[in-house]
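HUMAN: Forgive my ignorance: could you write out one protein's sequence and backbone structure tokens?

ASSISTANT:
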Amino acid sequence: MTRNFTLLLARLAIVVVWLLLWEWTASTELLPPAFIGQPSVFLVSFYTHIADGSFPAATLVTLQAVAIAFIIGAVLALLTALAMTVSPTLDELFSPIIDALNALPRVALIPLFILWFGLGLTQKVASGVSIMYFILLSYTMAGAKSTDSDHLLLARSLGIPRSAVFLKIIIPSAVPAIFAGLKLGMIYTVLGVITAELIAGGKGVGTLVSYYSNTFDPNGVFATLILLIIITSTLSAIMSRIEKRIGRWRPDV
């Protein structure tokens, strides 16, 4: 506990020193504040937008798309991984296709999503799903394939049914990789939705970043980036807490 508290203080000290140096650089115009912003300005701006409700409103719009994209992407990825793990033939058939699709830059797909789904919620969800799906699928497949071969060999020698091997050996072995994929996928789902908002507009956090960028307001951009850091850090912490809870009853394999 003491060590964790010390680490927290050290991290806070680093951030404070960094902000003080940034403030000094901007206030002395060593670098133009019009380009780098100024902490004393964008921190006040952040508080103001929280107080007037504009940041909370934008956050809810963005998180709605993130939640839908995360759930859809996770379900599809887990179902695909389930099918490919149970059937090696499906794995051999679809792995090259999935790898090729995963190599596509998601930003390049957003104009297509706008064309197909319009400028509303659906295209943002599609952008998030296109990232979440492939990240979680890759991690889940890697986790399933990393199952200890000795455990599998022992299960076969004991005549354990294939379904039981899958449920009691392969899935528990893949749980850490699945949660690693969920945590990373959550962060990148947020980025996918934000990117869609940057390009297509709307009322989310990404639209605010686009607005402040287009109006050459670095302080507004940094205030919005603070909001994004809080959102992603909170979501990541939630996923870590869920992982720890599940890890308490996960059987050793």
